[in-house]
Specification:
single chain; six-stranded parallel sheet; 14 strands
Length: 392
């Protein structure tokens, strides 16, 4: 099968890029002819001209349309298109071209951008759903990006895509990593029969144990407000007898609301092998996000490393953390509850080990490359059958 994969890369490499690359590699390894059409937003951050171009190309990009039309009419015409992110340099105006050429489109919905201009349902650090139901103007009114031109661009491109029906009319099948995200799409009017849940593919790791003085509560992920870092450090302050270690890059706009407790250590952004060792040395892993995640990659990775997880009871996490079996859920935004849950689980190392084993078994069963390939090929086959059907 010839598969054209399309993605607008972000200014900084993210989990979306990691998953896109993993899927491309998986499909190529299984014998498919994979070609890529990508653009990168890296160069527009510090360029006024680049930001201006991105403002308009998010709504309409004639160059991308020409590029795609050439690919679709070339000698290696794809059998199917797989798209992920089209903003800001590609734009959803390419989508009708696939319909015109009779090529089915499968979209991996990797964020909430089909419903929310900034893709996060987050405004000024708090969950926000004001833009639902065709009210994208709230992104500008609240200046959700804390930059009026950027907020306006986000609102405009989302409104244009919704009004023109570029996604609903031209995407054949959708993939989400969770039922939570699927339900958000259903509420926005996307057809239930065309939305398929496929959890992310997570590479397996060898489970290791490092005992002794390195025993700690681990956090892995971006150091930013929406990830609940201030909640985690406030909980750590209530557990001075327990060491905490935080791994991840710091968001440039983030500032800690208070001095770090003495039992909290920042270890920075870790490479593959150091990160594996970091997981191995932890007794448990905390994930205290305050926003609607689409999957929670660090939770899945913790499970594969055989570690129990304490996660926020918000968004997708109740789907992935089985209460009392693979981990514990804590009230989102509540440092006192998080501290109680951490302290209770920390005092039960045998329970931690049992939860870790259960979590690893679950992750191996649900997040393997074989399972992902089986699921995505079923969606591709369905898309090929439905390629000419009208979208609702």
């Amino acid at each position: 099968m010839r598969i054209l994969m399309i993605h607008n890369k972000y200014a900084a490499r993210s989990g979306e890029e990691v998953q896109f690359d993993a899927i491309a590699q998986l499909l190529a390894e299984r014998g498919h002819e994979v070609s890529l059409y990508t653009k990168s937003s890296e160069g527009i951050l510090h360029s006024a001209a680049g930001k201006m171009v991105a403002f308009f190309t998010g709504v309409w990009n004639p160059r991308s349309r020409l590029d795609i039309r050439t690919l679709l009419r070339g000698d290696r015409k794809p059998d199917i298109a797989f798209i992920q992110n089209l903003y800001p340099l590609i734009s959803p105006t390419i989508l009708p071209l696939f319909r015109q050429e009779g090529i089915p489109v499968v979209m991996r919905v990797a964020n909430y951008r089909l419903m929310c201009p900034n893709g996060l349902h987050l405004s000024h650090g708090s969950v926000c759903e004001r833009c639902l139901g065709g009210k994208e103007y709230w992104c500008l009114l609240r200046n959700c990006e804390e930059n009026f031109s950027k907020s306006a661009g986000y609102a405009l491109r989302n409104a244009a895509a919704r009004i023109m029906g570029w996604y609903k009319k031209n995407v054949t099948e959708y993939i989400t990593a969770s039922s939570f995200l699927r339900n958000r799409m259903l509420a926005a009017g996307y057809a239930a029969a065309r939305i398929h849940i496929i959890p992310n593919v997570v590479p397996d790791v060898e489970r290791r144990e490092i005992k002794g003085s390195r025993d700690y509560v681990a956090y892995v992920g971006r150091i930013s407000r929406e990830k609940g870092i201030d909640i985690l450090t406030a909980a750590a302050a209530q557990c001075p007898e327990i060491p905490f270690r935080l791994a991840g890059g710091i968001n440039p706009s983030f500032r800690f609301s208070a001095a770090l407790p003495q039992n909290v250590e920042m270890v920075g952004l870790l490479g593959k092998q150091p990160l594996s060792e970091f997981f191995a040395g932890a007794r448990l892993v905390a994930s205290c996000s305050q926003c609607f995640e689409t999957f929670g990659m660090s939770v899945a990775e913790a499970m594969l490393h055989g570690k129990p997880v304490i996660a926020s009871r918000i968004g997708v996490f109740p789907e992935f953390v089985q209460e009392g079996i693979t981990g514990i859920l804590a009230e989102a935004g509540n440092a006192d509850d998080l501290a109680r849950k951490i302290r209770a689980l920390w005092k039960q190392p045998e329970l931690c080990a049992a939860m870790g084993i259960a979590g690893r078994q679950h992750a191996l069963r649900e997040y393997s490359a074989d399972r992902y390939y089986e699921r995505i090929m079923a969606v591709f086959m369905k898309a090929a059958q439905n390629r000419f059907e009208a979208q609702s």
